[in-house]
What we know:
The protein has helices at about 10-55, 125-130, and strands at about 65-70, 90-95, 115, 135-140, 150-155, 160-165, 170-175, 180, 195, 200-205.
Amino acid sequence: MARTSFNTTSSPSESAAEPEVDAGMEQTRRTLLLGALATTACLGCSTEARAGEDAPGSDERPQKGDALVFSEGDQEGKPVTLADLPAGGPPVHAWPKDPKTSVVRSGSRLNEIVLIRLDPAELDDKTRERAVDGILAYSAICSHAGCPVTAWVKSDVGDKEVFKCMCHNSEYDPRAGAQVVFGPAPRRLAALPLALADGSLSVAGNFIGKVGGAQPG
């Protein structure tokens, strides 16, 4: 009985084809791997960019222990020092900054603060309690329509300089807890207690009073 035999040796043509197939598969794997790596890198960059734009805590109200940094000008982002606040003004605008995470709380305009240094003898008792060496901190958002309080000018109703919102001319006296002395604002600016540690200003507590405007801007 004749035996049927199976030839397990590849022909020269088949042997030559195998490396080409292997090379093609290897090239495909390499292409897929490179594509996956590129996609992952892009996603990582995108996530990092989004995190930078909306860092956790950036829209939270000032917290006890926060440092204060400039919110505008050539020194934007730098710590506000005592030397940056000459007696009698001008005021400085600042953001609170989390000292642990280095996150600047600039995610909400309601967090902007206006700082002013005045003669402690000019302050009423309650205002003096929240001050540090005559330095006071208030919300920089007008309580009328939510415009920024940007001016430090002589009052329309007195001989002293006051904070003024140029949108509707509301004026606030920082010596008396930023009470309204002129204009349509319905209430005083929210006050922010301050502390001094190692020569640097910091937030000593939450805003006292409501922050923001009573009417839409």
